[in-house]
Amino acid sequence: QLQLVESGGGLVQSGGSLRLSCEVSGFIGRRYAIGWFRQAPGDVREAVSCISSSGGITEYADSVKGRFTISRDNAKNMVYLQMNSLKPEDTGIYYCAADIDVGACTVVAGTRWGQGTQVTVSS
User: Which in 36, 51, 89, 123 has the greatest CB count within 10 A?
Assistant: First the structure.
């Protein structure tokens, strides 16, 4: 059974950095495109960044381009989101998701989710 576990969230001041990690386990014979999504209180969940199964294709929301970098280490079954120059509006729960439409950076019917990690950026 596919499982995703996020880590690396926390409290940081505006302008600071955090690196989120997503450990993917339980898959057999297939690697998945992975996406990072976030949800602020009272808001809908939105796509932040997505990466293809090989890592050769990446997509970013306009709001994070130039500040966030998604990467993956398939040997370690890990996906990362390096977040720099953080802003208060980046605050939210960050989720990683497997089996997504990487080109559109959207979820599909079979998307699986982690439990999320809280990111709070103070001004």
Answer: 36
Instruction: Confirm if 49 and 105 have CB atoms less than 8 A apart.
Output: yes
Residue 64 Cα to chain centre, angstroms? 12
**Rounded distance between C-alpha atoms, residue 48 and residue 65, angstroms:** 9
Of 78, 75, 60, 73, nearest to 23 (Cα)? Answer: 78
Please state, in angstroms and rounded to a whole number, the distance separating the CA atoms of residues 33 and 51. Answer: 6
- CA dist., res. 23 & res. 33, Å (int): 13
Over residues 9-53, the pLDDT tens digits come to: 999 999 999 999 999 998 877 889 999 999 998 999 999 999 999
| Beta-strand runs (E) in 1-116 | 3-7, 10-13, 18-25, 34-39, 46-51, 58-60, 68-73, 78-83, 92-101, 106-113
pLDDT of residue 1: 86
Q: What is the DSSP string of 58-71?
A: EEE-TTTTTTEEEE
Query: Looking at the DSSP assignment, which residues form a beta bridge with residue 37?
Result: 47, 95
Side-chain half-sphere of 71: how many Cα atoms within 13 Å? 8
